[in-house]
């Protein structure tokens, strides 16, 4: 396989003069490669900068309109990599969109802008925001047929979907790259934040969650084990989500009093990163966590698939205090779609309480036989 994998997202189709295209997602998932590929094709006169350059940060953080306009003078396209490192970047970009109508802007970030810079309000009506994920099965469908995707399933579950991992030639190299990403890049943005008190606590929390994938998480239990108060744990988990390390599901609540809504389930953006954090790249037959890996894989691939196809859904798990649970609920088009994930060949049992209460719902079993229908 070549080192370039076509992504679902086209920069050309999403650029607009006088507006900001914001591309965000985890570090190392190919945002820069996507932009570099676009730069080779564009005829726009381009200024490429990074928020990690101190000089650039100084210019934008001062917020001096004349200096910012002088900086971009003569250019048609401004690209700012890792823009989340610039304080008040939203205000600076607003100045540019207000006073340089012919300029097109691309800003990338590896923690969501709301976390560090609050660009939401300054750029209302002036931005298009796209979240990028690690490579999806939908994108790999351009390279492999369905048979090959099924053949490679174990490899994907163990090593994950980061571009450099996918294109690595050997399992040893894949493991090495996934571990490097997990240890060197994963927490880079988080540790730059002033309100993070302890990197070791963040590490402890993430490792705990790696062993609880697919299970409901108790903030109180985490707080006790890592020696923090519940409020701080909640804040850290929110930051981990906004830094594209974790994705959470809340409990669905409709008509029943005993539905569980206070707890959340957490999934990792990438199974390879999760496995690196617990230092376990064993083959599937030697693992006792394959059910959790399978669920993580399916949930994230469904998120990717729906994002690529612009399907608007709400996502939940479902459980009552007495009568069973359902792994994954999608709420869309006025209906509930309930999914049970099974690695083996067991049939799925959907609680009668759910099906009789939510008569507008449809239920599905997702297993190794039919999973491609669910994620493609």
Key terms:
alpha/beta, 2 domains, single chain, Rossmann fold, 5-stranded parallel beta sheet, 7-stranded mixed beta sheet
Please describe what this structure looks like.
This protein is α/β, with parallel strands linked by helices and 376 residues long. The chain folds into two domains: 11-131, Rossmann fold; 137-375, Winged helix-like DNA-binding domain superfamily/Winged helix DNA-binding domain (Arc Repressor Mutant, subunit A, Orthogonal Bundle), CATH 1.10.10.10. The protein contains 18 helices and twelve strands. The radius of gyration is 22 Å and the shape is globular.
Produce a short descriptive summary.
Helices cover 41% and strands 18% of the residues. It is built from 18 helices and 12 strands.
CATH class bucket of the largest domain: Mainly Alpha
Assembly classification: single chain
What's the main sheet like? 7 strands, mixed
The termini sit apart by 21 Å
What percent of the residues sit in helical stretches (DSSP H or I)? 40-55%
- Summed over residues and divided by their number, the pLDDT gives a mean of 92
Question: Structural class of the helix and strand makeup?
Answer: alpha/beta
- Poorly predicted regions are none
Can you count the helices? 18
Annotated CATH homologous superfamily of the largest domain: Winged helix-like DNA-binding domain superfamily/Winged helix DNA-binding domain
Shape: globular
Task: Note the run of SSEs as H and E.
Answer: HEHEHHEHEHEHHHHHHEHHEEHHEEEHEH
**CATH topology name of the largest domain:** Arc Repressor Mutant, subunit A
Relative strand content = 15-25%
Q: What is the gyration radius calculated from CA atoms?
A: 22 Å
What is the CATH-assigned architecture of the largest domain? Orthogonal Bundle
